[in-house]
Specification:
It is built from five helices and five strands. The chain has helices at residues 12-22, 42-51, 57-62, 73-87, 115-123, and strands spanning 2-5, 28-31, 65-68, 92-98, 107-114. Helix 2 (42-51) crosses helix 4.
């Protein structure tokens, strides 16, 4: 399982949660620094983020992938569109939430969002 991480590095506790949720003990985290220049061409930077994952065309289409999207909403949605084009389907994304009362702020993995399943279900409401 490859985790494409466009956010903060994942902790061991978060990785353990991902192993449990996915049933995969073999995780590889690909960390992609995600800081966009608001004055430069936005879509070219999105393509560069996907390229920075270092995956070959066959890997995009055949490897089990989970995405930890960036927090900035317009970066996340454009990136998911780019990844969809490379993968041929919508990615499964990590869902993290703040741990209540933690200092410094900590986040826990609470689930996986299967965006392809969301899309498929939505088609039944057309």
């Amino acid at each position: 399982m490859i985790i494409l991480n466009f956010s903060h590095p994942l902790t061991e506790a978060q990785l353990a949660s991902i192993r449990q949720l996915t049933g995969s003990d073999d995780l590889r985290e690909v960390r992609v620094p995600t800081q966009l220049d608001q004055q430069a061409d936005f879509l070219l930077q999105i393509v560069a983020l996907a390229d920075a994952c270092g995956l070959a065309a066959t890997e995009w289409q055949t490897e089990p992938l989970v995405v930890n999207p960036p927090a900035l909403n317009f970066v996340a949605v454009a990136l998911l569109a780019e990844l969809h084009g490379r993968m041929g389907y919508f990615a499964t994304c990590l869902r993290l939430r703040p741990v209540a009362g933690s200092t410094p702020p900590q986040f826990e993995v609470v689930g996986l969002l299967n965006l392809q399943a969301v899309r498929d279900e939505a088609r039944t409401r057309r």
